[in-house]
TrEMBL record:
One MF term in the entry's GO annotations: transferase activity
Lineage of the organism: Bacteria, Pseudomonadati, Pseudomonadota, Gammaproteobacteria, Aeromonadales
Residue span(s) of domain Sulfotransferase: 5-202
Keyword Ligase in annotation: no
EC category name: transferase
Keywords on record: Glycoprotein, Transferase
Protein name: Sulfotransferase
InterPro entries linked: NST/OST, P-loop_NTPase, Sulfotransferase_dom
Enzyme Commission number(s): 2.8.2.-
Leader sequence segment: none
PANTHER family linked to this entry: BIFUNCTIONAL HEPARAN SULFATE N-DEACETYLASE_N-SULFOTRANSFERASE, HEPARAN SULFATE SULFOTRANSFERASE
Organism encoding this protein: Aeromonas caviae
Keyword Glycoprotein recorded: yes
């Protein structure tokens, strides 16, 4: 079987679902069934290539020899050991990272976990509890772990995640995008992606697949402003180190 050769690895709530939806329209790109394969973060999966290939085989029900096969699982960037596993699986794979202003991303994740019933705390209390929750999380890969559910600030430290990615993948193998590029400059961004993937630049219809417009309470709005200040040094590092402005 052909190996997955494109991974959309992050960030959660950054626009990965929209990007996968757009790419799935392209005749040369196949996105795994269900978009997020969650193969490399599956705590029950053996890491040998045979078991990985088998897991992917079940997610390619309509594959028709497209040249690009994509797994869009944003947690792959967050878990520090996964980029190396992706490289060991397919050293020639390409990666797309789409980033979002980290305080906006954090609040969007919080709202998602509240809707799912996985977050009982108010937003300020959830942020204050995060360090303790993650420190006491003995098995981050376990389904329902705090690293999966309550990593609001932690996921927004993009530089250390990107440093980890680039410790194994070359710059030429990774395309960095922002949520705003995809949202407000659709055609230009899709053209940039098709050039990166060496496929034809086919028309890809933009649609309103972004979600997460929430009406914040006063307390949540104040908390988000404080969090934006907290992430200011991170945004500066991201610009200086990787040329990404959020």
């Amino acid at each position: 079987m052909n190996k997955i050769n494109l991974f959309i690895i992050g960030t959660q709530k950054g626009g990965t679902t929209a990007l996968a939806e757009f790419l799935s329209q392209h005749s040369d790109i196949y996105v795994t069934d269900g978009k997020e394969a969650h193969v490399f973060d599956d705590p029950s999966l053996s890491r040998c290539n045979d078991s990985i290939d088998l897991a992917y085989r079940h997610l390619l029900s309509k594959y028709n020899n497209e040249s690009v096969i994509c797994d869009a699982t944003p947690i792959y960037m967050y878990f520090g050991d996964i980029p190396k596993k992706l490289y060991e699986y397919n050293p020639s794979a390409r990666l797309i990272v789409i980033l979002r202003e980290p305080s906006e991303r954090a609040f969007s994740q919080y709202q998602m976990e509240r809707r799912r019933g996985d977050e009982p705390l108010s937003y300020p209390k959830a942020l204050l509890a995060e360090v303790k929750r993650l420190r006491e999380d003995s098995n981050p890969y376990q389904h329902g772990s705090s690293h999966r559910l309550h990593s609001y600030r932690s996921r927004g430290h993009y530089c250390r995640q990107l440093d980890n990615v680039f410790s194994v993948f070359s710059r030429a193998q990774v395309l960095l995008l922002t949520n705003d590029e995809l949202r407000y400059h659709h055609d230009v961004t899709i053209n940039k992606i098709t050039r990166f993937l060496d496929v034809n630049n086919e028309p890809v219809v933009s649609s309103t697949v972004f979600s997460g417009e929430y009406k914040a309470t006063l307390k949540e709005s104040i908390t988000s402003k404080v969090l934006r200040l907290y992430f200011f040094p991170e945004r500066v590092r991201l610009w200086r180190r990787y040329g990404v402005r959020l």
